[in-house]
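User: Can you predict the 3D structure for this chain?
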Amino acid sequence: MAGRQKTQLGKPQAEMEQFDFIDNGSGPAVLFIPGSFSTHLAWRGVQEHLPNQYRTIGTSLLGYGGSRETRTQNDLGMKHQVALINAVIARIDAPVHLVGHSFGGTIALATALKGSADIVSIATFEANPIALVRERGREDIYDDTRRISDKFEAALAAGEMDAPRHIIDFWDGSGAFARLPKPVQNYCNQTAPANLLDWYTAYAFKADAKDYTTLNIPVLLVRGELSNSFMREATTGLSECLPRAKPAIVPGASHSLIVSHAQECAQLLQAHLARYT
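Assistant: Here is the predicted structure, written as structure tokens:
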């Protein structure tokens, strides 16, 4: 099967009624979950470098691409994002490897913690569980992160042009937003309200080290060599509490490594998938 499909489901699948579902190839099923400010297309470079032996499925997070937003200011729990991934997995109808970038990596872990899907393995690229960093006693890093998200929220409320630059520059370094192609900048501006909801959801997600110790499945944890202090702490924390974690670092990369270093990321992912397929 190939092409973009918007799958219609009834209320039994939580609230999910519409989401991106891009299904290509055959073989073991690999579901690619993008991060915020993105769609399924973020994984295209990595997928192009993988051997043609997998069934690759793409989707977009709530509020991005063709995935309908189900969260509100009064109901922002991670349950909404998990419902989305579970609905996609139900459509796949096979055991699945989850591959997530940034917030998508955190959502992959949250879905596995829920225990309602047949997940063979997980590969995360710069997963960013905020509560785990705070639990590790790094209030300094947590507070710095909170200041950035608060600054973004204030800029968005004030109608500041290019408010997402606060977030993009936080993850990828000063000037990162300005270096993005104009259509990408425009998409970030368009989806900024969804990103704000992502931050609320991330802060409300309270999984701790004890929770992660229950995930007895293989997890590849990838981060960039140049990642900020938050990402270094988050990856270290996950590697210490996930029972079957395998950390990896991509030289010369930062947060947007799945785009800037797609081939290197694909090589790491292929090695991981080969062990468990």
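The mean pLDDT is 93. The first strand starts at residue 4 and ends at 6.
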